[in-house]
Every structure is written in C-alpha cells, then in structure tokens.
Amino acid sequence: MKLVKNIQQGQLSYYTQNDDSISVSENQHYRWLAFDNVVQSMMLKRKPSQLTFPHQISLLSPLLFFRPKKVVEFGLGGGNLARFLLHYLPDLTLHTIEYSQEVIECFERFFNPQATKVNLHHCSALDWLHHHKKMKPDWFICDIYHKNQSINDSLILTKNILKKVDERAVLSLNLPSPSNEEINYFLAELKVLAPTKQLVYFHIPHYLNVIIHLLPYDMLSQAEESLLANTVLPARTFKRWRKYWRHGMQ
Question: Is 219 exposed, middle or buried (0-12, 13-18, 19+ CB in 10 A)?
C-alpha cells in the first residue's frame, strides 16, 4: 500500500500547538509525525527499525563504507535514523540533540516501542557543540527541520560542526528544500570550508531534499569485496544502497 494512501487513512493520536503544530497519526500499519501538517517521519509498526523515506536511506548511505562507533545526530524527529542505527549497530554510542521537548516526548511515547537506548539531549545544536568541545565522534548527522531556517542558518551550523570534524570523520547533511541557487551556494562554501574531504551529494527523486556527505577521500576507494565483507548492512540492502550511491554527484 502506498504511503500517501496510508496517510489519508490515518487517525489522529496526538496534537499540540506551540511555535509549531506537532501531530502524531496512525493506522493499522504506520505511525507518523507531522510538523505543521508536513509529514516529517513515519514508522512501520511491525518493523520499527525499517527506514520509510528515500532521503533517510541516502542520509545513512555512508554505512556502505565504515562502521561508526560514536555518532552525533542533530534532529530527532520520529527517531527513524536512531532506530535503524541501533538495530544494526547495537554497541554504537549515539547522541541525539533535539531542541523541542515536545518532539522528545512524542518519540518516547509513540516512536520508541522497543525502548531503544538513545542518549537524548534537549538543547540546540549550537549549544551542544559549545558544551562538548572535546567529544570527537566519527560521524555527524544533521537532519534538522525548521520552517523558518534559512540556508545561511544551515551554513552557520555546518561551519560550527566542521570545527569538530577531524580528518577521519564523516559529516552528513539533509537540506529539506533548498532552491537551485541556495544549493549551489552551499556546495561552493563547503568546498572552501572542507577542502580535504570528498563531497558527494544527492537530489532525492520526487522529494525536495538534498543530501550532502563529506567523507575522507580514501574511504570511497575501498574494494567492493572488502566493503561487502565488512558492512553492517544485510547483503541485499548493501547491494541496493550501493547501486543508489552511484547516482551521487561530486
């Protein structure tokens, strides 16, 4: 059944309106989180660890190339990325930073059915970066949605994250709906800010998201057999994601 049809058949389970309206709806198969009536994330109830949107697969595609031990995720949403990562990497140290207390409460109440251990931090991304200067994760994932966030806001945050990204670390970014001019500007700035990183980005078909990865150059030169032998992903998933990765632009 298509996701659109499922959304149309959903029943409201939760609603609150402060700065943003936040709602949780569900039907027999799915439960989803919406901000201002825009679906932000969706959970398959019978398999909570499954990714449900294509931009989530793109955002986590560096798993093709390495096994992270410590990940910092900016933006919790419905917890899709956290559930997936901790399902396939149960020993992973994951810190998730979320500014909205309502979103955190929704995750704990509706989107964490298996009581997955996530280190949740209720603060802004910039505040967390300021107070955790010594932490050196090997992967930063930035998946923040805010209706009033400009491309310059995203660039300021990215500059601050890059101060903590060492030569072996990976940075993955989700820009929800940039214009062509904005994405060209953002990419040009990144090439100046991170000249020692390989930049790969994806336009998500039928969606407005642009996913950007900054990776060590040698990470992408590993032999296919070695990648398949060491991946945390199931073989079928690895092959499907690997095929998709080849559509990335540099």
Answer: middle
